[in-house]
Automatic annotation (TrEMBL):
SUPFAM superfamilies: P-loop containing nucleoside triphosphate hydrolases (SSF52540). One of its GO terms (molecular function) is ATP binding. GO terms for cellular component: Rad51B-Rad51C-Rad51D-XRCC2 complex; replication fork. This is DNA repair protein, member of the recA/RAD51 family. Residues 20-230 form the RecA family profile domain. InterPro entries: P-loop_NTPase, RecA_ATP-bd, XRCC2. GO terms for biological process: double-strand break repair via homologous recombination. The lineage of its organism: Eukaryota, Viridiplantae, Streptophyta, Embryophyta, Tracheophyta.
């Protein structure tokens, strides 16, 4: 029988433990507008905004920063060189747009210009292929498929870890509220001979949260979940200042069940500029950190290079 002293004997010093934890779970600063707060695995970040407010593009830019290497052939890319799993619940993801965004990031990091030589662009195709292998994609058409995906993710993540030599670092969900109205309309009473509960909004949310929590225990990841807002007030024309303030205060009305809200550790709200200003002919969007609450916000636009924060 092992003695108590040998059981509590330390296998590593505090310094060694800290180095190991920071290596396995590094703090990462994501591209704008998520750059204000350092994030790490275990955090669940909710990106909230109306459609369109660049939510999917923000996920794409974060995914590219994750799958790019820190360094490649003596060139600095500043990435994590880790895998990303993108779960598409909107079923509108455009892989061609994603690949073009990745190309632009590679070209920009090298200080190159996209020059056409026949049908070829001037960028590192070997690096591009290596990055694309780290981008994992799946789509779900209803809550049944989403729950089935979550329940089988542990096996898939383990296979990818063995295949790529590293764990998946980010889990992205676009959009977590995609099936809200369908699930809300589902009856909550028991049905069937075996008296099983139907797939109601509450049971779906509880099951989703339980599965994500189980995944994070065994496969620590940073979770980024986009969510569309329900707009209670629409702008028929120009608003008075009083109406504009009222709309701004109602711009985020959380409709997800409390069990999901309790899982979220960070929440950022995106919305259009109240005065409909433009910058270089691009509409301006505003950010607001709701969780944790920050006293400052950023203005950003979306152009060919992605999300650009402006002063």
């Amino acid at each position: 029988m092992t003695s108590a002293s040998s059981w509590i004997k330390a296998d590593e010093t505090a310094k060694e433990a800290l180095v190991r934890i920071l290596t396995e779970r590094p703090v990462v600063v994501l591209p704008p507008p998520l750059h204000r707060l350092p994030l790490r695995v275990g955090n669940v970040v909710e990106i909230v905004g109306p459609s369109p407010s660049a939510k999917t593009l923000i996920l794409i830019q974060a995914a590219i920063s994750c799958i790019l290497p820190k360094e490649w052939k003596s060139e600095q890319y500043g990435g994590l060189e880790r895998a990303v799993l993108f779960v598409d619940l909107e079923c509108r993801f455009d892989v061609l747009s994603f690949s073009r965004a990745l190309e632009r990031r590679i070209i920009g990091a090298n200080g190159l210009r996209s020059s056409m030589k026949g049908n070829e662009k001037d960028y590192d195709k070997e690096l591009f292929a290596a990055c694309m292998k780290r981008f994992l994609y799946t789509r779900c058409y209803n809550s049944f498929e989403f729950l089935a995906t979550l329940k089988t993710l542990h096996y898939r993540l383990q296979k990818e870890k063995e295949k790529q030599g590293g764990a998946v670092y980010m889990l992205m969900i676009d959009s977590i509220g995609a099936f809200y109205w369908v699930d809300r309309a589902a009856p909550s009473s028991s049905t069937g001979k075996n008296n099983r509960k139907s797939l109601s909004l509450q049971t779906v949310a509880e099951s989703v949260v339980q599965e994500i929590q189980r995944l994070l225990l065994v496969n620590p990841m940073l979770v980024l979940a986009a969510k569309s807002t329900i707009e209670a007030i629409r702008n028929p024309g120009k608003w008075s200042d009083e109406k504009a303030v009222g709309a701004r205060n109602q711009s985020h009305r959380d409709y997800m069940p409390s069990v999901w809200q309790s899982l979220v550790s960070h929440r950022i709200l995106l919305r259009g500029s109240d005065d409909e200003r433009k910058y270089q002919n691009h509409p301006i969007f505003l950010t607001e950190w709701l969780l944790p609450s920050l006293k400052f916000s950023d203005n950003f636009i979306v152009n060919d290079d992605g999300v650009l924060v402006i002063l």
